[in-house]
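Example 3.2
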Amino acid sequence: MVVCRSKDNGITWEMLMDTMAGFANFIFTKSDIMACGDNFSNLKIFIAQAYSDTLSPSKFGAVFVGRYSAEPFYGEGVILLANTGWYKDIAFAWDHNFPSSNTNPYSIGILYSKTSYSDSLIFSSSSNGGMSIDNHRVVAFTDRYLEKVSLSFGRSITKDEGRYFAAWEKKEDANNSTGSIYSSHSEPDISSPFTTPVCLDSIESADIGKCNNPKISSQYGDLDNDSANLTSVVLYEKYNNVTNRYDLKGYYNLQPTTSNYFKPISFSDPSHYNRQSSIAFNPFDSIFMVTYFDSTGHKLPFLTNDFNLENPNQWDLVSSGYNDYPVTIAPYPRVIINEEEESGTVVWIADGTGEKGVAMFDAVYSTYTNFQDDTQKDGISIYRIYPNPCSSHANISFSLQNHQHITLTLYSLLGSYILTLVDNIFPPGNNNLLVYLKDLPTGTYLFTIRSETTFSIGKLCIINEN
C-alpha cells in the first residue's frame, strides 16, 4: 500500500510510505486511511490494514491500525492490533471537527469484520483523538458470513452526543456474490451499545439476498434536519435477475436515532450498468455528495442533494463525468470532504497500462492530477523479509533505481524507538540486508526502511531463547 500526500490541494504529490504485509505469505485484503485535525500542528493520520494468509486465508490474518504524525510524517504508535481470525474488511470514521460531547479533542471509530469459527462485526472507538482505544463493541455475531462494512459519524445540534452509524453485508453462503444489507448505530452516544440491526433489503421483497457493497453516510454539524433529528443514508448494489446486472439503490432515515423508518432513494440512470457507489456529507453546504461508476457510459457522475432529501429521487447533477478519459475496468471512486476548502474531493483508479491502474485526484478547487507508482524516480521496492518469524537474524531484500541512503530502524508496537539496524548508502539494483537480532527479546516489532524518497513500514516477529 502506497501513501501519498499533497500540501497544495492536489496539485503536487509526494510519497510518504510504501508498506508491505510484513509476514511471509500475507497479503493486504483491505486498507483505509483517515486524516484528523484542522492544521499541521494537530493533524494525525490513521492507517488501517487488514491481512490474510494466502496459504490458509480462512484461518489466519491480522488487522492493524497505526497513528502517524502528519508533519513531519512518522509512526507514533499502534492503537489496534488483532491477529486471532481472518479479517475481511475495515472502515474508519471520525467526527470531522464537530466533536461529540465528552470527547477530547475528537473521536474516531473503527469497524471491522472477522471470521473465527463464527463471524463477528466489531466496533472500536477512541474519545481522546486516537491516542488510545477506550471502547470495544460487538455489533453483530452470526454463523453466516459478514463481508463488506461501512462506517460514518452522525451529529446534530440536539444530538450533540454523536453516534456512529454502521452498514454491512451478510451472506448466507461464503460462495455467494450477494447477500443482505444491515444497518445499526450506537445509541445514545458514541460509546453506547449498537441498536438492533435493520435489514434494509427486506423492505422490498424482490431485493432480499441480492445486494452487496454497502456505503453509509450521516449528517453531522450544528444543524438539525426538518425532523428535529439528523439524516442517515445507505447506498448499495442490487443484482437484477432480469437484466443480469447490478443497479444502485439506497435508503434514508430522517429520524435514525428514534426510529427504523427507512425510505427509498433513486439517484442513478436505471438504463445504465452502475456500480461502486460512494457517499459523503458536506456540513458546510448541508448536502450529501454521491459518485459512482457508470460502466455503460464509462463515466463517474457527481451528484448532490439537500440533507432533508425533500426530493429523494431528484439529485442535482454537478457533473455527468468528472473523469477526462473513459474508465472501463474498476475505478472504485470515492468522495470525501475537504474540511479546509469546505468542498468535495474525489479519487479513483483510471485505466493504466499493463493491467495497472493510475491513482487519480480531482476537485473543483484544484486541477486534474494523478499519481502512478511506476513513474516515480529514485524509488525503493521491497521484495520480502525472511524468515518471519525469525530468531538470530533476518534478511531484507529490496531494489533501488540508483545510489541511495537507506536507514532501517526498529520500534516497539507502541512506536517507541528500539535501535537503528542499518544506516548506509547502497548501490542501484537488488540488495540484501542481513540484520542480527539475537540480543533482542522475544516479541513483535515494527520496522521502518527509509530511503531518500520512500518510507516503508513492516512487522517483524522475533523468537529468541535468551
